[in-house]
Amino acid sequence: MSIERDLVSPEPEGDERLIEAALRPKRLDEFIGQGRVREQLSLVLESALRRSRPPDHVLMSGGPGLGKTTLAMIIAAELGAPLRMTSGPALERAGDLAAILSTLSEGEVLFVDEIHRMARPAEEMLYLAMEDFRVDIVVGKGPGATSIPLDIAPFTLVGATTRAGLLPAPLRDRFGFTAHMDFYEVDELERVLHRSARLLSVELPPEGAHEIARRSRGTPRIANRLLRRVRDFAEVRVEGVITRDVAAAALNLYEVDAEGLDRLDRAVLDALLRKFGGGPVGLSTLAVAVGEEPETVEVVAEPFLVRQGLLARTPRGRVATASAWMHLGLTPPPDAFGAGVIPGLLDGA
Ligand SMILES: Nc1ncnc2c1ncn2[C@@H]1O[C@H](COP(=O)(O)OP(=O)(O)OP(=O)(O)O)[C@@H](O)[C@H]1O
């Protein structure tokens, strides 16, 4: 049995991108949260505009659904420049990239999503393009091969990655500015939700927004998705208004709990506590206990549980924290991992 978990996945589901397009903030002052990134970026853009030069290349790092694509579009809009979009996996050969670079217009913004997944030859071509606005087109093969230099228009590369650590240093070093996107605070997500509700003509009182925001795993994409589900519930069951109780009832129905944990997250915690006494237990044993692949448990459920301070990865295996016991309404044993530690300090353990 595999547990359905689209609702709180940070990746876009089905045709969600279409709906998202309608909800995207268009300018920097509409972009909610990420205060430091916004301020730094507005300086970079403002000074480029004053100098009438394209700004330095920008790297954005952070998890899916935190607003990287939105920010890339905003950068182009603020510069009044056209935007070209591609992604690392689409750049399999150097020629794929050359075809794009050679047709850029002056000042154009080139957005490369998942830039860490670009093929090596394309990556090497990009170094020169970023630094000297030039590409070397290799003609022929073997000893007879020659390279023809080709000037390209000055442009701004905006790269997005969920894994900044996977970028080779020479590529990382060529970005003049790196924006680290963090998870959003509950009050920021409330603002995202109020804005989306306005655009979707949904009546959303503050306490309804708060209830949805706290279950949204720090991610605007999830917040917007939960809002749509709650709206459906409110329309069908209670004629529209999303009160706190309506939001809670809807999300309970969809099995997203008060902290944003879904069925898989809870199944993992439940097995860890009830079957293995809180651990330590190996990943594959834990995965068998919940009927999932180890990779699903590791990639999908664990990062959020770790971030919430509910689970720790230790050299001896997975361990439940004292907060995990309490989350499931159980009394933690006195020696529970993290007992006496302020929840949150275990993040990233
Ligand atoms: N700061 C924000 N303010 C308002 N809405 C936001 C913000 N950040 C993201 N969103 C909304 O969340 C949705 C997802 O954002 P976006 O597509 O930019 O994320 P992403 O980081 O590029 O994710 P991915 O890499 O998976 O595409 C969009 O609908 C966008 O409007």
TrEMBL record:
Catalytic activities: ATP + H2O = ADP + phosphate + H(+)
AAA+ ATPase domain span: 54-185
Positions contributing to DNA binding: 313, 318
Keywords (A to Z) from UniProt: ATP-binding, Cytoplasm, DNA damage, DNA recombination, DNA repair, DNA-binding, Helicase, Hydrolase, Nucleotide-binding
GO biological process, one term: DNA recombination
Molecular function terms from GO: ATP binding; four-way junction DNA binding; four-way junction helicase activity; hydrolase activity
Location of region: Head domain (RuvB-H): 258-349
Main localization, broad class: cytoplasm
GO CC list: cytoplasm; Holliday junction resolvase complex
Compartments where located: Cytoplasm
Region listing for Small ATPAse domain (RuvB-S), in residue ranges: 185-255
Binding site for ATP: 23-24, 65, 68-70, 131-133, 174, 184, 221
EC number(s) per entry: 3.6.4.-
UniProt superkingdom: Bacteria
Binding sites annotated in the UniProt record for Mg(2+): 69
Subunit structure: Homohexamer. Forms an RuvA(8)-RuvB(12)-Holliday junction (HJ) complex. HJ DNA is sandwiched between 2 RuvA tetramers; dsDNA enters through RuvA and exits via RuvB. An RuvB hexamer assembles on each DNA strand where it exits the tetramer. Each RuvB hexamer is contacted by two RuvA subunits (via domain III) on 2 adjacent RuvB subunits; this complex drives branch migration. In the full resolvosome a probable DNA-RuvA(4)-RuvB(12)-RuvC(2) complex forms which resolves the HJ.
Domain remark text: Has 3 domains, the large (RuvB-L) and small ATPase (RuvB-S) domains and the C-terminal head (RuvB-H) domain. The head domain binds DNA, while the ATPase domains jointly bind ATP, ADP or are empty depending on the state of the subunit in the translocation cycle. During a single DNA translocation step the structure of each domain remains the same, but their relative positions change.
Entry's family note: Belongs to the RuvB family.
Protein purpose: The RuvA-RuvB-RuvC complex processes Holliday junction (HJ) DNA during genetic recombination and DNA repair, while the RuvA-RuvB complex plays an important role in the rescue of blocked DNA replication forks via replication fork reversal (RFR). RuvA specifically binds to HJ cruciform DNA, conferring on it an open structure. The RuvB hexamer acts as an ATP-dependent pump, pulling dsDNA into and through the RuvAB complex. RuvB forms 2 homohexamers on either side of HJ DNA bound by 1 or 2 RuvA tetramers; 4 subunits per hexamer contact DNA at a time.
Protein name listed in UniProt: Holliday junction branch migration complex subunit RuvB
Taxonomic source organism: Sphaerimonospora thailandensis
Gene that produces this protein: ruvB
